[in-house]
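User: Predict the complex with NDP.
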Amino acid sequence: MSSGTFRALVVEEDASGRRVELRDLAVADLPPGEVLVRIAYSTLNYKDGLAVTGKGKILRTSPMAPGIDFAGTVVESASPAYRPGDEVILTGWGVGERYWGGFSQLNRVKAEWLLPLPEGLTLKRAMAIGTAGLTAALCVLALERQGVVPGERELVVTGAAGGVGSMAVALLAQAGFRVVASTGRPNEADYLRGLGATEVIDRATFTNPGRPLERERWAGAVDTVGGATLGGIFRSMAYRGVVAACGNAGGTEFTTSVFPFILRSVQLIGVDSVVVSPDDRRQAWTRLASTLPGDLIDQMTELIPLDAVPAYSEAITNGRIRGRVVIDLNA
Ligand code: NDP
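Assistant: Here is the predicted structure with NDP placed in the model:
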């Protein structure tokens, strides 16, 4: 990056078609905003995969840099909240959807969208956690707020080998829960046990036909898959069990009976990470920074350069990415 110019992965869509390409741009090309950030790392989330491949309608303007999260250093700031040299992170707020995203060496954003780099984390590890970790932490906090505490009963995480799933398994295990990982990739069993899963089960457990109520097993669930998987989880929720639903990697619609709700007082809680309040964000990041050991974060993380993003986007939308993918904007 020479002074004044920078590189970004840009998606452009017009009457002549759809192009995904690396482009050299000038600072003047960036949208207006209060804080100019030199981005060190971004990450590849499921939503970014949909945005880059065009498999989902994520990008709301064109041309556009995808990337729903980033970590970097403030270059200029019109806000008293930040000064040049400050290390910051950003997740959500429509960045990489409605607003210029993180797959860009520079970005200009609203000060209120940024958080100071949480204490104890490097820029790289903050992005290894990224939106996936934030979402997982919000799910864990949601379960805890509804009274789910470590005990005899197990919790289940679906889509466990993915980004949010891996983070949820690790966070729950670190908090002392007995966490069972549900995956379609039995070859990732050792990886999942390494994150703290006590058992690894086949994801077909939830999509196979079953009775409306089965043996009470789960005190809580973090579901990143949605669809039939989410529908199937309710059958084996224990009395007063709580399901935190945050994903749709396996589908958007689900069917269940009312019995888990009216006979077992089961609760379903939706979790959003995009416009969640600054207070909840801070609480979640404090939890993440204080509970996840650095080497555990590194075990879940693969580092790639910006030009590898299109291929990895195809892979993440096909459920073939393990853990977290961090993008090094300077590689
Ligand atoms: P990943 O692709 O990393 O993880 C998704 C995992 O789901 C896969 O690894 C796979 O796990 C499982 N999976 C994928 N396809 C299917 C399928 N057809 N049927 C059953 N299981 C499947 O994505 P992320 O971790 O980035 O995101 C996970 C989900 O959470 C996405 O739907 C995403 O949109 C959502 N999300 C929501 C947020 C929010 O604010 N609510 C924020 C971030 C993510 P395995 O191989 O282990 O079975």
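The CA atoms of residues 49 and 55 lie 8 Å apart.
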